[in-house]
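WP5 quarterly update. Target: Bifunctional NAD(P)H-hydrate repair enzyme. Source organism: Klenkia soli. Length: 487 aa.
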Amino acid sequence: MTGLHTADQVRAAESQVLARTPEGALMQRAATGLATVCLRLAGRAVGLRVTLLVGAGDNGGDALWAGALLTRRGAAVTGLLLDPARAHPAGLAALRRAGGRVTGDPAAAGLHRADLVLDGITGTGGRGGLRPGAAEAVARAVAGPGLLVAVDLPSGVDADTGAVDGEAFPAQHTVTFGAVKPGLVVGEGRGFAGRVHLVDIGLELPAPTARQLTDADVAARLADPGAGDDKYSQGVVGVHAGSATYPGAGVLCTGAALRSRPGLVRYAGTAAEGVRAAWPEAIVTDGRPADAGRVQAWVVGPGAGTDDEARSVLAEVLATDLPVLVDADALTLLAASPELARGRSAPTVLTPHDREFTRFGWELGGDRIGAARTAAADLGVTVLLKGDATVVAGPDGTTFVNGTGTPWLATAGTGDVLSGVVGALLATGMDATEAAAVGAHLHGRAGQLAAAGGPLIASDVVRHLPAAVHLLRTAPHVPRARPPVIR
Ligand SMILES: NC(=O)C1=CN([C@@H]2O[C@H](COP(=O)(O)OP(=O)(O)OC[C@H]3O[C@@H](n4cnc5c(N)ncnc54)[C@H](O)[C@@H]3O)[C@@H](O)[C@H]2O)[C@@H](O)CC1
Ligand SMILES: [K+]
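Structure tokens (predicted):
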């Protein structure tokens, strides 16, 4: 599990270490880690042309110290001082001592021929997007051939939210210190961070503000069937999705549930004929949820319409004491009658995309973690806010940011697949917020496998779910999972 820590949390942990270590020691650790990663990425030191973009704070100090280390290893390092009077004094002196050169002129900083560019403009102390001088230097860096490496955080990205207000440094790699900040993995920031390398600088960190599951974490939560299991003990999920005219959502959602968890899927709805034809393994009725037989969780909404019948089905399943996943059309209905979800005794999971989210009247700015948390607390539900990095927030504030997936998943029907996956996990009795996070991770991995040869369609994701489970289970360090407990 990767813990995500806010800038304040990291700063507080840093000040504890600062109080008991010699001056500059922490920055030395950061700079040494940074230089080590740079050498690994570049594959050599001697003759390596490096340009440092140096801002006015300690982030610039890290870059200068790392530049000094690289100079000593034989690199040709130039520091571009964006605010020369405020450049970190000790770092600047170290670079000069080592034989590095400095300039205040972006045109003279060698960005057109650098092998490596280190972005030390701002880190956790940055506010807002790049200022004009910094933006000009970044534009030159982007136009040049150098590998773009951000120091701690791509400048211009908000450490806590990933919001980018204006321009930011588009890093190919980010070397971050002490802890991964949420802004590196969520929101727009995710797209600016590139590959994230965490350097341990010996901080004692508090509980993270949010978490990111690894393959091993997810595998550990996916239990094998035991010798005494039968189809009922594996979790039975009910699906109400699709319509007679558009059965696709019912077919995809039912198929995803079947392929995620080999228990039993019951389908109830007007897409019955299409679902029966596609999935003989499902138990299908064209009646209402109450006609479907016993289930341990419901998925309701994808392609199910927003008419009175659909509304009454939604009210029926939300009136049960079973976990319910509400998606798509059912979210539109719920947004108009949120009281149906408020105060339920069993867990409810909402899986909105941005438009569905704002229909509830919740604001969605650059802070997707904050928005999902506010919504979850408002209704007392788990909110899975879909996006490039899906955010899952539970009613108690537990938060996950998903780290798997591919842009190819932005295609019709993949949301129906996600609902089926999470619904199947809910039916096993898994905690609802974990089920949403585990389901998002598995769905993303299946999407990555399905997209290996190029574009994918949603049914490709369904087909790749078993291979994705296998991939997760063969990840390093997977502990054995205990069998699920079915109520
Ligand atoms: N506190 C510590 O002991 C350590 C801090 N470290 C580094 O220190 C960084 C934080 O340093 P600081 O708190 O000095 O802050 P930063 O270096 O992140 O930036 C603050 C400076 O940038 C200016 N600034 C703010 N927004 C700007 C913008 N949009 N465009 C241009 N300039 C802007 C401010 O005026 C201020 O002078 C971390 O990200 C990390 O890189 C590491 O060396 C590890 C140890
Ligand atoms: K930076």
